[in-house]
Structure formats: structure tokens, C-alpha cells
Amino acid sequence: MFLQGQMVETPNGVKHLIYKGYAYTKNNKLKNMGTRYACCSRLSKNCLAYVHVSKDNVIIKSNTKHNHKPPNYFFSKEAQFINLLNGTTLLMVNGYTFHKNAGVQYSGGIRWQCSSKSSQRCKAFVVLSHDEETLLRLREHHSHEPPKYKSTSTGMHVKIY
Ligand SMILES: [Zn+2]
Ligand SMILES: [Zn+2]
In the chain, what are the domains? Predict the structure, then answer.
């Protein structure tokens, strides 16, 4: 287990380390010393913050002096992309599905609308970053129960009516 840190996975499987409110991604392996994680804003903001994690997942060294505010990220282990048999890709978050719609820009990302927007007048939506790796925002007040999907052997999902 991490001490004070938490590993989370983004919708398409990229692992991040969350530590004291900031997100870090794997930077490089340290010889026999574990792994170095660098702040996600390393490139965009030249942030020098990092965390060293030993091989047994203990944070042994860190520089948490960020030159920016903590990101307002929302990570969910329950988020994943699913492919429907008709070729549509949906984002499933906590059992609900969202589709990209026309790809409306929304505060630094793309807005994905609840799939039941038209049938249930549901206003729930999520905002996914442009690289589709981070959920930036989650509005989860659904007006309905989650849809039921069944995985097929090929990894496709079939909606059950
Ligand atoms: Zn930083
Ligand atoms: Zn909904």
C-alpha cells in the first residue's frame, strides 16, 4: 500500500498517483530504488514536483512544491469506454453511459451527455479531457436507473431492454 498516496486509473487505463491533492504520472524507473513519478503539469507548467516511490510502494522522497493549483480532476475506477455492436463508443461511469454527442467544448474538455438524455430528459453529463484520459467534471444527477449492458465474448456490449 502507498503511504498517503493513491493509485488511480483513468478511463483508458493510464495510471496516476494521487498524492496530497496532486496527480503524478510515472516518469522513470530508478535503479533498484523504485519509481519516480512526476507532476502531471511537468510539461504544461514546468512544474518540478515529484514523488519517489520505493519498490514496496512506500513514498520515500518527494518535492511537493507545485507552481500551480491542484488540478480539479475527478478520477473514477468505475469509468471505462465500451463499444456497442453498432460501432458506437460510450463512456461508462459508475454504471451509467455517456456519449460524445456533437463534442461540445466545456471548460477545457469535451462534454459527454448521458445516453438517456432524449428518452429520460436526463441532464447528467461528464467532461472528459481532450486526450480522453481524465474526467474533469461529473454531473451525476440522473433521472433514471442505470441502463443494463451485457458484455459479449468479443468485448462488445449489448444493451438489454
Ligand atoms: Zn505540479
Ligand atoms: Zn442519465
Answer: 5-63 (no CATH), 79-160 (2.20.25.240)
